[in-house]
Amino acid sequence: MALLVFDFDGTLVDSNGLKARAFVEAADFLSGAAAAVARVRATPAAGDRYATIAAIAAALGRPDAAGEIARRYDDRVRAAILTKLADGWADAFLAAVGRAGHRACVNSATPEAALADILTRAGLDRRLAAHLGGFGRKTKNLRAILAAAGVDTAVVIGDGADDAESARACGCRLIAVDDRDNALFARPPAAALAWIEDRLRTEPPGATDAFV
Ligand SMILES: [Mg+2]
């Protein structure tokens, strides 16, 4: 029995690639979109998707277009992620997590409103004890999840440096995944849960996996 705190993108859904592409698609009604997106995304992230989009609009000399790009981005990402989630993997996996007696939460850098919208539309919210979003808030969110659950520690499962940092800051175990060879969603749902439980059994509490 564990409190499992999952990242969303690249962890519960194979969405990192589609989100990266969506910036270009959302801005492609302006010339030079691909180059501007590449330039902006090559610099350290300044904030959430809306900060990134504002930087892209500014790089294109069209700061007035940020709202339109954001609407197009939100629409594309929501549709593409819901299409991915329609394969049922995340629902079956989280159902298996619940049946095994674990509590599952989602802690994502996606803005809370967009995260809640997708989780609700996909029917995943009913599988989760909590879900919290927001850029740069993973440690804060994890603290809130621990407090609400009334526990001292949890197991963080994610593919990003921010996931690792939240686990370190809160003294939580980290299970690192990626969206390639070590992807959770590359395994059948039951096998993905078995893989996590095997890690919990065979590695000492407090162990932190290195990112590859
Ligand atoms: Mg991620």
What does this structure look like?
There is one protein chain. By secondary structure, the protein is of the alpha/beta class. It folds into 2 domains: 3-14 and 88-202, Rossmann fold (3-Layer(aba) Sandwich); 16-82. Helices cover 52% and strands 9% of the residues. It is built from 9 helices and 5 strands; from the N terminus they run E-H-H-H-H-H-E-H-E-H-E-H-E-H. It has helices at residues 16-27, 33-42, 49-59, 66-85, 89-99, 112-121, 138-149, 161-170, 189-202, and strands spanning 3-6, 103-107, 130-132, 155-158, 173-176. The protein has a 5-stranded parallel beta sheet, sandwiched between helices. Strand 4 (155-158), helix 8 and strand 5 form a beta-alpha-beta unit. Helix 5 (89-99) packs across helix 9 (189-202). The longest helix is centred in the middle third of the chain and has 20 residues, at 66-85. It is elongated. It binds magnesium ion.
Q: What key phrases describe this protein's structure?
A:
Rossmann fold, 2 domains, 5-stranded parallel β-sheet, 5 strands, 52% helix, binds magnesium ion
